[in-house]
Amino acid sequence: MKNLIRLLAIFIFASSAMAGDITWKTFEIKTGPIVAVWDQTQSSTMGWSLELVKPITPYVGVGAMIEGAFNTSGCDDCVDYRYDELSEGLLVNMNVPFGLGFGLVSNFMFLVNFQDGTVDGLYFTDPYPVDAYDADGNPIRAYRMREDNHDYYNESFMFRSNLGVSWWTLGKRFGLEFYPLDIAVIGGDARMTFSLDAVVRLF
């Protein structure tokens, strides 16, 4: 227990020493494009995100984000989703600096996700029986795929986590963050995202 307390004290003192350039006025603005794919709907996503992060130490920050995107499945012979997507909520930002401006960066996001659009197509998992006859006029068993066209709306909680690589200029005023691993979970669906953020630090 004593060793754990010592390690915690060392971490706090080291963070305080390295956080000399972080004040109560320090904020980071992060913005950039996203490209994603949903698992269940098989829809492709293109959009833009904006984050406002308050660094607490060089390793930890908290903030808020908003992200807008357009989704389309582009499916010709199955269910076709086309909808706009909006996600907004809070995040915890984690940083592990390596040196020469490079480091690892990760975010844990707690968001509300809104999806609004249309859905249409053939529902292969929900066929229904129809009257059908063979060449001799005898009844045969046949089914037809259910086709539907209607408005689509979904509102749900989204948990999202990512891991990426960051790079900062020498003065830590400008940076870039690339996230090759980004997984979002919402209800029974999941989204894999690739994103690139430009970062500006204020004060």
Short synopsis of the structure:
The chain has 203 residues and is mostly beta strands. The chain is built from 1 helix and 8 strands; from the N terminus they run αββββββββ. The chain is 8% helix and 72% strand.
Fill in the keyword field for this structure.
203 residues; mainly beta; eight-stranded antiparallel barrel; 8 strands; 8% helix; 72% strand
Can you lay out the helices and strands and say which pair or pack?
Elements: H1 2-18, E1 27-38, E2 44-55, E3 60-72, E4 80-99, E5 102-133, E6 139-168, E7 174-186, E8 189-202
Antiparallel strand pairs: 1-2, 1-8, 2-3, 3-4, 4-5, 5-6, 6-7, 7-8
Helix content: under 10%
Poorly predicted runs are 8-19
Gap between N and C termini, in Å?
Answer: 39 Å
* Number of contiguous helices: 1
CA-atom Rg in angstroms: 24 Å
Give a quick account of the main beta sheet: strands, pairing sense, barrel closure.
8 strands, antiparallel, barrel
Strands of the widest sheet, in order across it, are: 1-2-3-4-5-6-7-8
Quote the average pLDDT: 85
Molecular shape = elongated
Proportion of beta-strand residues: over 45%
Encode the helix/strand succession as letters.
HEEEEEEEE
Q: Which structural class matches the secondary elements?
A: mainly beta
Any overview of this molecule?
The protein has about 200 residues and is mainly beta. It has one helix at about 1-20; strands at about 25-40, 45-55, 60-70, 80-100, 100-135, 140-170, 175-185, 190-200. It has an eight-stranded antiparallel barrel with strand order 1-2-3-4-5-6-7-8. Strand 2 and strand 3 (about 60-70) form a beta hairpin. Mean pLDDT is about 85; it is low at about 10-20.
